[in-house]
Amino acid sequence: MSTTSVSTSLPYGITSSHVLAALHNHDVMIRTLCPAVISYTFESGDPRTRATYAVTDRKPQTGVTTYRLTLTNLADGVNSLVNARPKMGILTIAGKWRVRNGKLVEDVEIDGNFMMMKMAKGNVEKTHPVQHSRLLQLATRA
Description:
Blueprint: E1 2-9, H1 16-24, H2 26-33, E2 37-46, E3 50-59, E4 63-74, E5 77-84, E6 91-100, E7 103-112, H3 114-139
Antiparallel strand pairs: 1-7, 2-3, 3-4, 4-5, 5-6, 6-7
């Protein structure tokens, strides 16, 4: 298992409640986590608390792929869980998005075979700061 963290300070004028509202909006979260989303469909659960979606996305390394994404709303943020089965093996990415001390903090655990974990960790470290910025931008509209 591999872990990594991404932390972004909340810009002036964006409150914790703005960010929490964006985190709890599953459409916003899916579009934040999956910027090249082709489509997604609700599978089960309740979007106000915990829901699972089938997401079809375009990834630079693997092309078009479909995976399950579960989002669980919590008082201080949201948990995200990606279960994917790309050609190279099974991949699980668990994210804990929290608003703390004026920051958006994301702790990520990645599990899969060595090659998948290495590729996914590099991707998380490269793309998730951009995802944080996008989410904070969308939070101003929430």
